[in-house]
Write a structure and sequence with these properties.
The protein is mainly alpha-helical. The protein is built from 18 helices and no strands.
Length: about 400
């Protein structure tokens, strides 16, 4: 109980201070997490730390439900090409560049390099989707659907990276490899997730029409359903399916068929997100272990920065013909932050006893600290200069 109290009170105080000094809230929340976490004061209960991943996943689910309830399917028809580009091409290039740098600087083999790339390359949906929702509500960049691009692109980028990480892990650990399964895994995952999300949307929509749910019950039903799907996804992980994509899809369908109720639900989720955000980023900060940083600081900075340069270059080259210069530059800034994926999977190689586990964990921490700080400051300080506000 002490840990829960410290997380909430520390988070509220941190948010107040960050608002006063014009610093992104999540920076303060991560600092609070680091201070009260195992690396410093060790005031967070072990029971909470044991549930760390589950708590962060619930917070992420709430955020993705909000994203689904905010996305108008009709708005996506004009930006299908941009969504595919921003979701898959930059992350693929960053994974490849980080893999090559890992082979050169850390003497990794190709599979180990790709594993590092899939950890470091992913953007943070918790940061990007949250910022995209704020832009959508404030009507900045909506003339070119920039917020929608952040909501979908930020989610798919990270999901794609986690899928690649899991596939690389299988290749690294297994002696016999099913290459057909590996090649087809990503497209099959996208297809099954969208189809299941679509049919769930139909079922939920019919259920709501027959049963007069109170908004609070409906909100918690949505969270519970998303958690159930996530749990089943983990239990039957051999099936190519992403619960997070599914959650976005069925909420998009829900918005498409009942925009008024979706708007009211989104307002409720916006309130609960304020607490979920505190838990998410405080716990991200709590798992940051800086003991490995000094040894790998220089090489980590080189790998992360060069990877980001390749990502940024690809975003510019692929989007500058479809978007004005200012909007293209903002998209580069918007897809810099990393945090949630690195905090979730950065320590897995070390926990599995891999010889390169320390390096991977240290570079994950460097990526979180550097990109979260730089990325969020750039997004928050430039959106009103680079994006047009819809009147």
């Amino acid at each position: 109980m002490l840990g829960i109290g410290l997380i909430i009170i520390g988070g509220i105080i941190s948010n107040f201070i960050c608002d006063k000094v014009k610093l992104p809230r999540l920076i303060g929340l991560m600092i609070i997490g680091f201070i009260i976490g195992p690396s410093l004061l060790n005031l967070i209960d072990k029971e909470i730390l044991n549930l760390d991943l589950d708590i962060k996943n619930i917070a992420l689910i709430i955020l993705l439900i909000r994203a689904g309830l905010s996305i108008n399917i009709n708005d996506l028809k004009n930006i299908k090409k941009r969504i595919i580009i921003i979701s898959f091409i930059p992350i693929s290039i960053e994974i490849t560049s980080v893999a090559l740098l890992g082979m050169l600087l850390l003497k990794l083999n190709l599979i180990e390099g790709l594993m590092l790339g899939s950890i470091v390359g992913a953007v943070s949906p918790a940061v990007i989707v949250d910022r995209g929702l704020k832009l959508l509500n404030r009507k900045y960049g909506t003339n070119y659907q920039i917020p929608q691009l952040m909501l979908i692109g930020g989610s798919l980028d990270s999901i794609f990276s986690v899928i690649i990480f899991n596939l690389i892990l299988v290749i690294y650990q297994e002696t016999t490899i099913n290459y057909a399964y590996i090649i087809l895994n990503v497209p099959l995952t996208l297809l099954t997730s969208i189809i299941i999300g679509y049919f769930l949307g139909i079922i939920i929509n019919k259920l709501i029409k027959k049963i007069n749910f109170d908004n609070i019950y409906l909100m918690f039903f949505n969270i519970a359903l998303a958690c159930l799907i996530y749990g089943l996804n983990k239990e039957f992980s051999f099936i190519p399916f992403s619960s997070l994509i599914c959650v976005i899809c069925y909420n998009m369908y829900f918005k498409f068929h009942d925009d008024h109720l979706a708007l009211k639900l989104n307002q409720s989720f916006s309130s609960i997100w304020k607490i979920a955000e505190i838990f998410l980023f405080v716990l991200v900060g709590a798992v940051i272990n800086i003991s490995y940083l000094p040894k790998y600081l220089l090489v980590g900075l080189i790998i992360v920065i060069i990877g980001l340069l390749f990502r940024s270059l690809i975003i510019y080259l692929t989007l500058h013909k479809d978007l004005p210069k200012k909007e293209t530059i903002f998209c580069i800034y918007a897809f810099l932050p990393k945090a949630t994926v690195q905090a979730a999977i950065g320590g897995i190689p070390l926990s599995l006893g891999f010889s390169f586990g320390q390096e991977f964990l240290a570079i994950s921490v460097i990526a979180i600290i550097l990109t979260t700080l730089v990325g969020t400051i750039l997004i928050d300080s430039t959106y009103y200069k680079l994006l047009t506000k819809e009147k």
